[in-house]
Amino acid sequence: MAAVEIDRLVRLLSRLPGLGPRSAQRAALAMLKRRDTLMLPLADALRACAEAVHPCSRCGNLDSTDPCGVCRDPQRDARTLCVVAEVEDLWAMERAGIFKGRYQVLGGTLRALDGIGPDELGVDRLLGRVREDEVREVILALGATVDGQTTSHYLAERLRPLGCTVSRLGHGVPIGGELTYLDEGTLDAALRSRQRVA
Amino acid sequence: MAAVEIDRLVRLLSRLPGLGPRSAQRAALAMLKRRDTLMLPLADALRACAEAVHPCSRCGNLDSTDPCGVCRDPQRDARTLCVVAEVEDLWAMERAGIFKGRYQVLGGTLRALDGIGPDELGVDRLLGRVREDEVREVILALGATVDGQTTSHYLAERLRPLGCTVSRLGHGVPIGGELTYLDEGTLDAALRSRQRVA
């Protein structure tokens, strides 16, 4: 039906998270209508990004410099280390603007069935860094999922002998969240971590 | 926070229909993980598509040849003409595989308030083509929206003097629905229950 060039573009676009075959087609047509202002700039941006952006050799963040902007920033506390599963989690923390230490990106969580063990997540590299940088606190900022919690427990065990403080993010009611939509696990965690206000 | 290359990519991706800032960021990260199998091929596909694909000078379809594949196909009946608003509507009809005539893409529907009148939609070109190709039937395959129906009525009035049959898609099309989202069965029913209006 359509040109092979369009078919190929739609097929590649539909592999992006959040785009199915139909929305990929809509995206392709939207770009063909804005060839010079969207389609060609996007082609350039993809190539520039693919060439310039690489994982930071220290923390695993993605940036066009190595070490990345976070690792190079002398204002940031190298002795507080936040461990996240993925780069998007690091970015979520940075968007919040609440953390002034450094990061370690695991690149996933422990999943024995998928063959993802401590080696795949660079656990030895994490331990080495904790020793080398004389880290005082490791904050395990992993999701409150089965995989995330399994990984947190494992890392806590491995980090304990090093003598640094190890913490995990608090569980509770999300800000803006309504109780009626929360699951029992969250409510249970929220009740147990209740804080005295009077 | 992130590299300017990533920021620029995310900004462009978030201009695609169906992607907001968060999903654009997810898409960018997914591509950075598959640089050689997804990101660079997508950059190439965008450029190839932008260079090769252009509107057909006869019907307005997008293809890498001019006239387009539909207009060049000698198996297709040049004397039955299906008028659609957008290229995605033409593709929706082609996906259903139920129509063996030719198309005319208007590029929109009449919207006086937005300055879209008969000239913008190439109505004279449509009338000329109906005369030239001795078209026997014009099928108005416009959405069952206010704009679509206004445009259908207008076109029916303009086409009436030419002596060809003018029909519109049957009311299998849900009111308020757009062609590009319809399933093949609905499109098939709509084509078969088309009604003569002039």
Automatic annotation (TrEMBL), chains A, B:
InterPro entries xrefs: DNA_Rcmb_RecR (IPR000093), Rcmb_RecR (IPR023627), Rcmb_RecR_Znf (IPR015967), TOPRIM_dom (IPR006171), TOPRIM_RecR (IPR034137)
Keyword annotations: DNA damage, DNA recombination, DNA repair, Metal-binding, Zinc, Zinc-finger
CDD domains listed in its UniProt record: TOPRIM_recR (cd01025)
Stretches assigned to the Toprim domain: 79-174
Stretches annotated zinc finger (C4-type): 56-71
Keyword Ligase: no
Keyword Hydrolase included in the entry's annotation: no
UniProt cross-references to Pfam families, sorted A to Z: RecR_C, RecR_HhH, RecR_ZnF, Toprim_4
Family statement drawn from the similarity comment of this UniProt entry: Belongs to the RecR family.
Role, per record: May play a role in DNA repair. It seems to be involved in an RecBC-independent recombinational process of DNA repair. It may act with RecF and RecO.
Name assigned to this protein: Recombination protein RecR
Species for this entry: Benzoatithermus flavus
